[in-house]
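thread: overnight batch results

M.L. [08:02]
morning all. the overnight job finished for the chain we discussed friday. pasting input first so we're all looking at the same thing
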Amino acid sequence: MTTTGIRSYGTYVPRFRLDHAEIGEALTGKGRGGGRRLVAGFDEDATTMGVEAARAAGDPSGLDAIWLATSSPAYADKTNATAIHAALGLGHDGFAVDVAGAPRAAVGALRAAAADGGLAVLSDLRTGRPGSADERDGADAAAAFRFGPADDALAVLIGRGSATAEFLDRWRAPGELASRGWEERFGVEQYLPLADAAVRAALADAGIEEVDHVVVSSPHARAAAQLAKRFPGRTPAATPAVGYAGAADPGLKLADVLDRAGADETILVLVAADGADALVLRTTGALPARRQAVALAAQLQGGRSLRYATYLTWRGLLDREPPRRPEPDRPAAPPSARSEGWKFAFVGTRCRACGMVHVPPVRVCKRCHAVDEMDPAPLADRDGTVATFTVDRLAFSPSPPLITVVVDFDGGGRYTLEVADAGPDEIAIGTRVQPTFRRLYSVEGIHNYFWKARPVTTGDAQG
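M.L. [08:03]
and the structure it wrote out:
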């Protein structure tokens, strides 16, 4: 099991936070304690968050396979991983597929990527019925892990074990927004022996008896708590409170350990979902120098508080009167396909004759009029500065007002983008922004993906 390992990794958490006290006050007139849950924006889904996590995992060049694990796919009868592949600017070479349907898909994506040396993207939105524990304790987030040869890895896969049983613990029928669960004691009785078997097999496969760090992930909170006590590891758990993030949950917790672990330490990743799966990894001397750029703990700081009614509206649980404005037209497939590199990867052109960057791409230079003298000019990883902006309170938007900014990108290029994750008080001429992959709108079941601009640094605010 020492032929492959993790070369790089990255996590993404959305900016919005829903206070537990806000939920309780709205439903019962009483608070429900402290804490907050992570909430994806109205323009985010498992695909867009997966793109951001994959970008955080580093340079995608040379990547030839992507597995997207999610229990909340944006499309049900279309591959969602292809949009991630396109947004990473990988052209038409390589393989991309969904591993969808349930949180256990995370293990499937990790094992497939480890076997083939590809990228596992774990991304999920968790929606519970109003007032439920799923709503309160869920989380929306994503994580990505790129695998490759063990001699170029920051953590090597050294053991694995699995146990499978068919029992009804949690389920959601197609078309339903929220899951349902069976009585808690039944789930504990099912999961504990399966987890014991999976962990024993993984430790035996790794040739060790104890590990330094343990990651436990399960949609069954009571089983997860008992498993964490049963397999404590030599190093006390220190993962920050995130909430259960579905298919992304084991990825977030593993990434947090990698953010903190030292070289030559062992990690047990235990996932109890429709069975039990255990992976054992050993970190290498490359880890300290190759951690993700911003640790998960730092990503969780701050955030923008969200009203409960806004959250319910974004999730389709509250049918509010829509804005009385013309809705967008349905996105057309042919022009999207023709402009794939621009629309999904945000690639402009740079004139070889005079160096001018054109956004969107063109064949004829606007400055020197050279024809077909263009090189690709990727913009997705470039920050920029707001040259001017508008706040439109009349345009259609699920979260008005609609803010648009004219961005001057570092290194050349100017373009107008919608603003994400910020209010009018957070945008000014001179504000530094960065591109982020989002969903502009959805019409007749078609999602119009493109790029928006978000402030590079933002303070807390009320949404």
